Amino acid sequence: MRFFVIGDEDTVLGFSYAGVEGRVVHTPEEARDALRNAMTSGNVGIIVLNDYVAESIREEVSEIRLEGSIPVIVEIPGMAGPLPDRTSLEKLIRQAIGIRV
């Protein structure tokens, strides 16, 4: 299984440096299409969504999470920082691995 990232140019570019494929999206329609394609590709285990993209298609993201199936959807903050009332990427990393970056 592999990762797939959906987000803005900076997010997708950053993940591409680690060998993760992705798709740049600008509209909710593009995001829905990218999500559908990733869900049906058969070999994607984790879909990484920029939080702004996830918010624009919240209904679809929530439905997939409620199903509890693979692929798993993970939301990360975008380059502009986390949405209000969200945890920063630095804090998420610190909580996950216990190291300050």
Task: Please tell me how large the radius of gyration is.
Answer: 13 Å
> How much beta, percentage-wise?
15-25%
Q: Quick one: overall form?
A: globular
Mean pLDDT: 84
Q: State the end-to-end CA separation.
A: 27 Å
By DSSP (H or I, 4+ residues per run), the number of helices equals: 5
The stretches of 5 or more residues where confidence is low (pLDDT under 50) are: none
Q: Tally the beta strands.
A: 4
- CATH homology superfamily name: ATPase, V1 complex, subunit F
Summarize the structure.
By secondary structure, the protein is an alpha/beta fold. 46% of the residues lie in helices and 22% in strands. It has a four-stranded parallel beta sheet with strand order 2-1-3-4, with helices on both faces.
Furnish the topology, listing elements before pairings.
Blueprint: E1 2-7, H1 9-16, E2 21-24, H2 28-40, E3 44-50, H3 51-56, H4 58-67, E4 72-76, H5 89-97
Parallel strand pairs: 1-2, 1-3, 3-4
Structure description:
This protein is of the alpha/beta class. About 45% of the residues lie in helices and about 20% in strands. It has helices at about 10-15, 30-40, 50-55, 60-65, 90-95; strands at about 1-5, 20-25, 45-50, 70-75. It has five helices and four strands; from the N terminus they run E-H-E-H-E-H-H-E-H. It has a single domain, classed as Rossmann fold (3-Layer(aba) Sandwich). It starts with a strand and ends with a helix. The chain has a four-stranded parallel sheet, sandwiched between helices.
